[in-house]
Amino acid sequence: MKRKALSFFILLLVLFVLFPSRGFALTGIINIRHWTAPDNSRIVIDTTSEASYAILKDGEKLIVDIFQSELLPDVSSEYLIGMPAVSKITVKEVDKNTTRLEIDLAKNVSTSVFNLGEILDKPHRIVIDLSMPEIERQETDERIRIGVEGKKRIIVLDPGHGGEDPGAIGLLGTQEKDIVLQIARELRELLVERGYKIFMTRDGDYFVSLEQRGRIARQYNADLFISIHADAATTRQARGSSVYSLSTIAASDEASRLLAASQNLSDIIGGDPDSNNNFEVDPILLNMLQTEALNKARSFGSTSLEMLKRVNDLKFNTVQGAPFRVLRLPDIPAILVETAYLSNPQEELLLRSKAFRRDIAWAVAAAVTQYMPIPSSLAFLEKDAQYRPQSHAVALGKKDIIYKVKRGDNLETIAADHGTTVRTLMEANKIKSKNRIYAGQSLKIPGGYIVDETDTTPAVYTVASGDTLERVARRYGVSMADLMRINNIQSKDRIYIGQRLALAPPSSAPSRPAAHVIARGETLGEIALQYGITTAQLMRMNNIKAPDRIFAGQKLSLSESPSSPRAETHVVTRGDTLERIARRYDMTVEELMRLNNIQSQNRIYIDQKIALSAPPSASPFPARSATTYVVLPGDTLGGIAQKNDLTVAELMRLNNIKSQDRIYAGQRLVLADTSAESPARPEKHVVTSGEALEQIARRYDVTVADLMEANNLQSRDRIYVGQKISIPENLGAGAGNAKATEQIYTVGRGDTLEGIAKRFNTTIESLMAANNLESSNLIFAGQKIIISQ
Ligand SMILES: [Zn+2]
After folding, report:
1. Under CATH, which architecture does the 737-789 domain have?
2. Mean pLDDT for the chain?
3. What's the CA-to-centroid distance between 179 and ligand 1, angstroms?
4. Rounded to whole angstroms, how far apart are CA atoms 28 and 573?
5. How confident is the model at residue 74 (pLDDT cuts 50, 70, 90)?
6. CA of 267 relative to ligand 1 center, distance in Å
């Protein structure tokens, strides 16, 4: 009976997608990821090749069998998700070469499963879309009700990308989808305050198709549609804000056309099963429908540019036309704002600063108010006229700003947001104890005035009258060369008042709490942004393998733990390069090549297992020793030198670097000279950028007082770059440093074991024995070697 009833009620849905088998190669299951939107959830299974699978829906259970497959090491056996549509995924190998996913669903969930091919750096994927039609219907009804009722002005904000589709990615790993969501939320807050009715096409990290974005705007019968993006270009030089409206004829220029084409790919990257890739607009039809809306869009776009000009440079002074698919809204004025370039290092830093995001949001809010004023927004017109961009004011170092303390603020976050320090704030406001601030209090934030220069460096400096590049460089301890390189300045005299200069990223992040508890819907990218670190760093700190492998309530450590365990091997996936793997695990390409006996950088293949550490016996010295430094993205030699109390020249000499710009993220730099011969003490020392008398004194093992006396210096701050400083004899020196029988040598670039053996008058064999080396080829620059005679 029971069996009969069961078979009667079970909805049996079997779907086979079979492909010609390709020998015995198994499809590797790389990863399982998931996102959730208010009315749907998505699970994505990354695979090494196109997978064949069968699905079976049994009441509230969805079973997906993947044939000829194997689980790769990163995949867990259980995922507790707690999304509205799905609570749990269990992964197991059922029989030989079949992997089964059991997905526990909520009631009334409809499912759709499909394959997505490789695109850009995305591997093959099986996508499981879980939708909740009842909620979808409720949402639609609600939108239409609001649209019909609409007394207030309705604006739909559209943060670009999301979920599978990260959008542009900056050098520091900043993802466009995170940045634009932050800006949109900021903008929503400002517009709600002004009395507008605001809706978003997405309010979390999930994929929304271009079609659906437009549908949402039409259901609300929106008065305005604003899509928010951050640009990327193939050249790092490109920068500035721009505004686009839909154009059916030719795009304004080739660049705009390409940009639109890349944005229109969003559906394919993000995986919309219904995406129709040939976006052809019938010009005549569109013309009839859209003339009015297009004119309005251009007019609103121009107003937006006027406002954006006050917070950032403009890429184009006029509204550009391009065939952006998301702007295809027949009767709603729609614009797309490219806020700044994530591909430009300077603008990436700007986009990462809250002050700048707020400025951008303000500019758009002010444009809305001008273009479409309503009674409740009128009062803001005057305020807007007087608005001082925060990212400018602080950097300009001229005008103080007053900040009203909000609930949940603390001095650390306020300081970090404004590019200043806690000490500066305490002094400026005569605050005795850090905890003595309260919501509603007005705090004075002195512009650019930094009490303790070692505490924090603002990300950006705005050139003021009388500034020279030298002065800016000296003030922030950056070398001229670095400053010119970071900002792409060709001649040192080519700076102008108001120009914003990116300084090297601060050497240490502003003080931050020790841990962060993940809130619902938060992404690692957002959290990283909040604390001024990169997603990769955050992942490393917490040993997280994939960015979406996090859950609400999880406690994340925000500091680097020296002994954080990491995976022992990495399985190469589509799009991996040795460089990328090295960066991910904080190693150098050379190390990886050495550990895995790889002869050429390009010789890696999908599914290859790459060892990340040598067996314990092979490396007598910890890889991460205090005498080496791994270059991070955005690091400059000047910055590294300063952090480690060295001069740029010393660093270059120690690492045999010929040109200052020739460092790369992941490179391991030697910080100390442990070779037998110690540098000869010169009679004169030439002061380099960022050097203080203390450093020079320490370097030559003399006191500051001695140096001042020998050079007739009146004040310890009165030294300048290029000055020659006499180094007095140090009477107290003379303690021996090298032991007679055993010494440590740091391998330099290009060193071979043979060369070292010759140099120290020993043999390769004894070096290998003393250092537990298995092969004479297994040495790398920066490695410490015991020299035994
Ligand atoms: Zn975009």
Report:
1. Roll (3.10)
2. 76
3. 10
4. 10
5. confident
6. 12
Please report which confidence band the pLDDT of residue 24 belongs to, taking 50, 70 and 90 as the band edges: low
pLDDT tens-digit map of 642-659: 767 677 777 787 777 777
Partners of 158 in beta bridges: 227
Cβ proximity of 78 and 89 under 8 Å: yes
User: Residue 19 has what pLDDT?
Assistant: 43
pLDDT over 60 (residue 623):
no
- Quote the crossing angle between the two packed helices 354-371 and 176-193, to the nearest 10°: 50
pLDDT score for 417: 63
Q: Which residues, in sequence order, are CB contacts of 603 under 8 Å at separation 6+?
A: none
Amino acid at 694: E
Residue 635 to residues 462, 525, 538: CA-CA distances in angstroms? 21, 20, 18
110 contact partners, CB below 8 Å, separation of at least 6: 130, 131, 132, 133
Superfamily of domain 148-385: Zn-dependent exopeptidases (3.40.630.40)
- Which protein residues have their CB within 5 A of the ion that is ligand 1? 160, 167, 229
Please provide the size of the chain in residues.
789
Are the beta carbons of 105 and 64 closer than 8 angstroms?
no
> Are the CB atoms for 684 and 503 separated by under 8 Å?
no
| 110/129 Cα distance (integer angstroms) | 8
Radius of gyration of the chain, Cα coordinates, nearest whole angstrom: 30
pLDDT reading at 25 higher than 50: yes
* Least confident interval from 126-135, 192-201, 250-259, 434-443: 250-259
Cβ neighbours around 384 below 10 Å, total: 18
| Residue 351 Cα to ligand 1 middle (Å) | 14
Give the strand pairing for 98-105 and 86-95: antiparallel
| Ligand 1 midpoint to CA 270 (Å) | 12
Distances (CA, A) of 50 to 47, 64, 73: 7, 15, 19
Instruction: Note the CATH number of domain 10-131.
Output: 2.60.40.3500
Question: How far does residue 308's CA lie from ligand 1's centre (Å)?
Answer: 18
Q: What confidence tens digit (pLDDT) does each residue in 507-530 have?
A: 333 446 678 888 777 788 888 877
pLDDT band with cut points at 50, 70 and 90 for residue 253: low
How far does residue 495's CA lie from ligand 1's centre (Å)?
A: 31
Q: What is the Cα–Cα distance from 231 to 344, expressed in whole angstroms? A: 9
Residue whose entry in the numeric block shows the structure tokens 């807050």: 189
Q: How many CB atoms lie within 10 A of CB 381?
A: 12
Question: Ligand 1 mean position to 268 CA, how many Å?
Answer: 14
- Domain ranges across the chain: 10-131, 148-385, 737-789
In the chain, pLDDT over 90 holds for what percent of residues?
19
Q: Where are the alpha helices (DSSP H) in 644-772?
A: 648-654, 693-699, 704-711, 753-759, 764-770
Residue 274 CB neighbours (<10 A) = 9
